[in-house]
From TrEMBL:
UniProt keyword list: Amino-acid biosynthesis, Aromatic amino acid biosynthesis, Lyase, Phenylalanine biosynthesis
Descriptive protein name: Prephenate dehydratase
Top-level taxonomy: Bacteria, Bacillati, Bacillota, Clostridia, Peptostreptococcales
Any one GO MF annotation of this record: prephenate dehydratase activity
Superkingdom to which the source organism belongs: Bacteria
TM ranges: none
EC number(s) stated in the UniProt entry for this protein: 4.2.1.51
GO annotation terms (biological process): L-phenylalanine biosynthetic process
The species this protein was found in: Geosporobacter subterraneus DSM 17957
Length: 284
């Protein structure tokens, strides 16, 4: 099964795609938008996208992308330990002037560079693997933040290993597709919604529906509605499957008190309790 990921080969997303299952064939793509578009149009069956990181928080482009699609559903998730390495074609850090990587990866290592190499310029590029290719072509004054495999693949030296600011640096990836996922008994559902107007207790009224039925929420996030200041889209992840009558009851109640609700998908739990499932957690 073809799965689009942020390429080229050797990115963190590539590692996550391969870990999703042996039947997966990774298809490198240039941007998160290209992955969304290809899955939406049915050109590829699935895509994998980072959605949140334990150091940096939400991957906002992916969060925003989810509400603008019509056919896409979240069909799976997996959590990865992300270990960043400072890579270069050169052999020492003294020569380094510029370090390239994906903006998320740069942010996850910003303190390391501020403390140790304040004069090195950090520059964003499309992905960590793209950064490795560029650093190789530019020569020893350029470095890249990437994973070990990318370093090996592109013939770079590890100048410093584990340069992420927090030792425990995890990224949660979602898998998107166009078909519903059947309930497994250990599922999660993601929804997004917004309100008609801003009034006291509006968010509380939504949260109360979950509390009343003893449903565990695992994440709540808000994003600007991209209108005037103060207008937001809320995202909630919770335990349970959208086909469960109890969850359907909650969703019906929420529909009545919000302007719109979008069910982003129900899928098998890949983190928290699911941490033990070997195929769902990995290290890149
Ligand atoms: O640049 C890559 O290698 C990616 O796969 C992207 C990405 C991200 O956007 O979150 C994936 C995991 C890490 O959190 C850092 C970068």
């Amino acid at each position: 099964m073809e799965m689009g990921y942020l390429g080229p080969e050797g990115s963190y997303s590539h590692g996550a795609a391969l870990a999703y299952g042996s039947e997966v064939t990774g298809i490198p793509m240039q941007s998160f938008s290209e992955i969304f578009e290809a899955v939406e149009a049915g050109k590829i069956k699935m895509g994998i996208l980072p959605i949140e990181n334990s150091t940096e928080g939400a991957v906002t482009m992916v969060m925003d992308g989810l509400i603008h699609t019509k056919r896409i559903q979240i069909i799976g998730e997996l959590v990865f330990e992300i270990r960043h390495h400072l890579l270069s074609i050169g052999k020492n850090t003294e020569e380094l002037q510029v370090v390239l990587s994906h903006p998320q990866a740069l942010e996850q290592c910003r303190e390391f560079f501020r403390k140790n190499y304040p004069n090195i310029r950090l520059l964003a590029c499309e992905s960590s693997s793209q950064a490795c290719i560029a650093a190789k072509n530019k020569g020893p004054s350029y470095g890249a933040i990437g994973n070990k495999l990318a370093g090996e693949r592109y013939g770079l030296n590890i100048l410093s290993d584990q340069v992420q600011d927090n030792l425990m640096n995890q990224t949660r990836f979602i898998v998107i597709g166009r078909e519903d996922t059947k309930a497994t008994g250990r599922d999660k559902t993601s929804i997004a919604f917004s309100f008609h107007d801003d009034h006291p207790g509006s968010l509380y009224e939504v949260l109360r529906e979950f509390a009343k039925d003893n449903i565990n929420l695992t994440r709540i996030e808000s994003r600007p509605a991209k209108a005037e200041l103060g207008k937001y889209v809320f995202y909630i992840d919770f335990h349970g499957h959208k086909n469960d009558p109890k969850i359907q009851g909650i969703l019906k109640s929420i529909e009545k008190i919000t302007r719109w609700v979008k069910i982003l998908g129900s899928y098998p739990l890949g983190d928290e309790e699911g941490m033990q499932q070997k195929t769902r957690v990995g290290v890149v």
